[in-house]
Specification:
heterodimer; A: 76 residues; mainly alpha; Non-ribosomal Peptide Synthetase Peptidyl Carrier Protein, Chain A; 4 helices; 0% strand; globular; B: 247 residues; alpha/beta; Rossmann fold; seven-stranded parallel sheet
Chain lengths: 76, 247
């Protein structure tokens, strides 16, 4: 699993946020656009792209994009 | 000329454009300056619609929206659009005790699943521009009951529900989604509902305006929802039925 690819998929769930804002260390919950719908989209994206099931807890326990990436990676 | 309902500069995809409300919508949209992408199964009748459009640049794409490969082809061929009108649909009458699983599959595939998958795919492929508008043709059958109309009513009810959820989620994309709920409209589709001429006259008299609607009368409402005149309208339901649901 490649983090750059993960970040691309992650960013696709946002409409307004500049692409340059999405980095491994980005604290995604602090992005203006972040909301509960985006959390749901992230869960669905991980399922569709990686065939891995994550839950609300996993989003809650992640601060940065890299945190979430690691959670997904560990479930592979 | 001042016209907040103008569709000048907008590209609109219209399904079910070979007849009825879909055809009238394509024609009226073209008269208000839109570039129309029209789609339907019947090539001959779709060509007739294309011939009636005003202005240039319109495109026709043949597709049976219930066939996966044809739906995919439609989505791939569709350029970036500003509006989507989900008008394709069929009527179907069957008393409850005669309903078969196949009936449910057929009607829901055409009337409900196809517009949902088309809408979803166009959004996912970012083919609908920001400030775009999606119009979904539901029916007064979604919340009024006539005997035999169960499956059609349920399928249209599901579409109305989809409209509300879609409006909520797509607000993030600044795309508006609204549904239109027509009563009986004089189209080929409703003409095929097998009731006698006498019954039709009796039924017309149950409408406070004492007649059925014309396809253009639905098209003009669709145009309102596609135009910038409705830029603050989303998740709403517009009933156009000559007052039928009042009684």
């Amino acid at each position: 699993m490649d983090i750059n690819e993960f970040i691309t998929h992650f960013a696709e769930q946002f409409e307004e946020t500049e692409l340059s804002e999405f980095k491994p260390e980005t604290k995604f919950k602090e992005l203006d656009e972040y909301c509960s719908l985006i959390a749901l989209k992230l869960i669905a994206m991980v399922d569709e792209e990686y065939d891995i099931t994550i839950k609300g807890n996993d989003i809650r326990n992640s601060n940065t994009i890299e945190d979430l990436f690691n959670i997904v990676k560990n479930k592979e | 000329m001042y016209n907040p309902y103008s569709l000048e500069g907008k590209t609109i995809l219209i399904t079910g454009a070979s007849s009825g409300i879909g055809r009238a919508t394509a024609i009226e949209c073209s008269k208000l300056g839109a570039r129309c992408i029209i789609t339907a199964r019947n090539q001959e009748r779709l060509q007739q619609t294309l011939n009636q459009l005003e202005g240039d640049g319109h495109i026709q794409i043949f597709a049976d929206l219930t066939k996966k490969d044809e739906l995919e082809n439609l989505i791939n061929q569709t350029p970036k659009i500003d509006g989507l009108v989900n008008s394709a649909g069929i009527v179907y009458s069957k008393p409850i005790t005669f309903i078969k699983q196949d009936d449910l599959d057929k009607i829901f595939s055409i009337n409900t699943y196809a517009p949902i998958i088309l809408t979803k795919s166009l959004i996912k492929q970012k083919k609908i521009n920001k400030r775009g508008s999606i119009v979904i043709i539901s029916s007064i059958a979604s919340d009024t009951q006539t005997p035999g109309n169960t499956i059609y009513g349920m399928a249209k009810s599901a579409l109305a529900c989809f409209t509300r959820y879609c409006a909520l989620e797509l607000a993030q994309n600044k795309i508006r989604v609204n549904s239109i709920h027509p009563g009986m409209i004089n189209t080929e589709m409703t003409a095929n509902i097998c009731i006698s001429k006498e019954e039709i006259e009796i039924d017309k008299n149950t409408y406070p305006l004492k007649r059925y609607g014309e396809p253009q009368e639905i098209a003009w409402a669709i145009i309102y929802l596609l135009s910038d005149a409705s830029s603050f309208v989303t998740g709403s339901k517009l009933t156009i039925d000559g007052g039928k649901s009042l009684i």
